[in-house]
Design brief:
Layout lengths: L2 E4 L5 E5 L5 E5 L2 H12 L3 H4 L7 H17 L3 H11 L15
Antiparallel strand pairs: 1-2, 2-3
């Protein structure tokens, strides 16, 4: 996805991709979440959140990934993701949370 726009009344969202495809969707929260999670599934922010130096930005990325896991991804999606990246989202102990 290379661009996203929301209609002034927030009823529709349109996305454009590098393959020149354009998608128009009704902006229901579940639809928006599905699209975002699908597009970000293999983004470096999700696959290697430890590479983000800013702790607050890392926490945002981790929260987004956990939201996708909770509301969108199937158990199979989660298993494949975890096996491929050998992590699911982790904060180091010095940041106050234990690794998963």
């Amino acid at each position: 996805m290379t661009s996203v726009a929301v209609s002034p009344d927030s009823q529709y969202i349109v996305s454009g991709c590098s393959d020149r495809s354009v998608r128009l969707l009704r902006s229901q929260w579940k639809t928006l979440l599905d699209v975002c999670c699908d597009r970000l599934r293999y983004h470096p922010v999700f696959t290697n959140s430890e590479s983000i130096e800013d702790i607050e930005q890392r926490k945002i990325a981790i929260a987004a990934c956990e939201t996708c896991r909770k509301y969108v991804w199937s158990k199979e999606d989660i298993s494949v993701y975890a096996m491929k990246y050998r992590q699911f989202t982790r904060l180091s102990a010095k940041e106050g949370r234990q690794s998963r």
